[in-house]
Amino acid sequence: MRVPAGWRRAALPSAGLVAVGGLGYGLTKLSDSDAAANWAQLASVALAVFALLPPLISSWRQRQPGGTSTVEQIDRAERTLRVLVREQWREEIVMRELDRPARLPVRWKISGLDVMDRGDRIDGERLLRSWFGLGRVRFDGRTDRMPEMAGRFRKLARRRLVIIGEVGMGKTTLAVLLLSELLKEHEEGDPVPVLLSMSGWDPSAEPVHRWLARRLRENYPALRASGFGPDAARGLVTYRRILPVLDGLDELPRPVRSRVIDALNDAAAVEALILTCRTSEYLAAVGADGGAPLAGAAVIEPRAVKSADVIFYVLDRLAPGQRAGWAELLATLKSEPDGPLAEALSTPLVVWLLYKVYIETRANPAPLCDSERFDTADAVTEHLLDNLVQATFSAATPDDDPGERHEHDHPFRPQRSWDPEEARGRLAFVAHHMSEAGSRDFRWWHLHRSVPRRTSILIGGVSVGLTVGTTVGLVSDAVVALRSPHAGSLRDALLFGLAGGPVGGLVGGLTGGIILERLKGYTLEPAYANLRWRGNVTGLAGQVALGLVTALPVGMVAAFALWRVAGMSSEVGGLVLYGLVVGAIGGVTLGLNKWVTTPLTNDRPQGPVTTLRRDLRLVYGRSLTFGTALGLAFGVAGTLVDGFSGLLRGAEAGIAFGLAGGVVFTLTFGFTGASSTYLVAVAMLRARRRVPLRLMTLLEDAHRVGLLRQVGPVYRFRHERLQDRLAHLYHHPGENR
């Protein structure tokens, strides 16, 4: 019988919990020491038990949602998703400067390649599909006339479209513009268009419907809100409430591309969709052994941008005083339509590069007319790519007015000033890191892969072990010396803590490092944390109540077991008090943990900065919670034995141990969070002059000025050629044409 994945993830910490309980039982049965010593042993067992709770809760949190949302809940989720997607792309389109009225016109036509399904499956049964050819599908359009293209898309029999083209021809741009137009003029019953990067997907390992639902939950956390039922994302996919806009089929490995097309053809839950891919890669996927075109899909490809359109685009963006300096370049475009400059500017990517490097910075473009220096179209493109980052950051004015009290609320200006050359060097390292990983997505929780694993584990194990050992040693010995009825010297206790604590901590840290080294395939994912009180107090109360209902019986059972095993108290009143307090502490802890990981229905889409901040809140908030609970549990235990006499002394000991526990859990379980591994990696890479300490601020500013684009919780370079060129410059830093 197959064991469910959630139980498999919980098996190791559960086994550890049983082992710790057995160890504690054995110690107390074999020990002849007094009650204070028994209390110390009990404290050690409790420490281990609390240490195993976070993995258990993490496993609980990571399980796939179960159950089915109702139709009414799915309807509400669909309306919310439409609003979230519209807000997300409204800002992104402005950042990409795709909202300008005089947009560069890129013309698209139906592909002449043998990559399409039968015409009647695409356009329906028609006697005349055009005035110029019987039986042919027509799908012409321009990016500056998007309402017409959206109307043509709606007339397709299955509303399936494949956008192919060579590098730099604007496939993703067209997909984004079409998504925006479909959202703007949506009709009753239209699904919600959602753009998803295909990077890393293999349908043989994760079926279409499961992958779509997972990506929806990751990118739009509001769909996980309790108000939408147990699994609204799955319901949206199952009931065909979304229109997947799948970007980057060419980024998948060659064997996977054909499997993706086959999986989309077989997926009952996917009807309408838009797919982008480079021409050669799509042709190879369709023509492979056993390959087939996307069923019922029209396939369109772009035409080269005309020189006349480029000239009009440039003149429209030049300031009155700039036009004289551009006369030579514009004349070259007219007189040499087949020259290297005109050939380079026949792609939307290079036209955009020209705007960013020369028009926006008001630089003189005369060097581009040097046919000896730029004798090929690639030479022109590489020159513009090499100078793009410096030009963009030089032209962008930071939103850092000290007279304003807001925190950089301008969405299209950088938050701080960056040295242009330094910014290019840091982004070149990021591009190199992504290329080494074979990915077009920058996932901040994967940055640690750029750091030697053994070095990071050694440094982390030593630093964490020493800090934890010293803290625990000092606090524990100080509390015992100050509050124990037994005679003892505070000075001797502190010296013992300074001597023994670091040694024990160092051993434990290195041992943990060795264990992590053995778990090489283990990958942390960012977690969710929502600490907003407004509109969420009811949810907090409900989760705490549920936690109490769950934990109080467990606390009573644990109290009875410890009473029988450790002889904690001979009075029933003490037993009941211990069970109630420990159960209450555990219930509040579990309730808080569940509350912070439950999204609200109005949560915005997850961006990279948002996911990092929320993961930090969750990791350190959870560490503080468990540390405080640990200290309170120790204090309660101390009041019920002879180790501490009286409630006051037990409370004082609990506070002391709570502070120590907060440090311990922050430094141990804090460093097992995705955000913590990211911070450690940034610190190590900063020491090697690879990235700035405020790396995420640099990336967010690069996104604001248009060098990066944001797709859910990941960053991508504006174009893959920019990533490839920066990665090349990382190896050849002196190269600059």
From TrEMBL:
The chain crosses the membrane at residues 36-57, 457-482, 494-516, 537-563, 575-597, 618-641, 653-685. InterPro entries: NACHT_NTPase, P-loop_NTPase. The keyword Transmembrane helix applies. PROSITE patterns: NACHT (PS50837). It comes from the Bacteria. Keywords: Membrane, Transmembrane, Transmembrane helix. This is NACHT domain-containing protein.
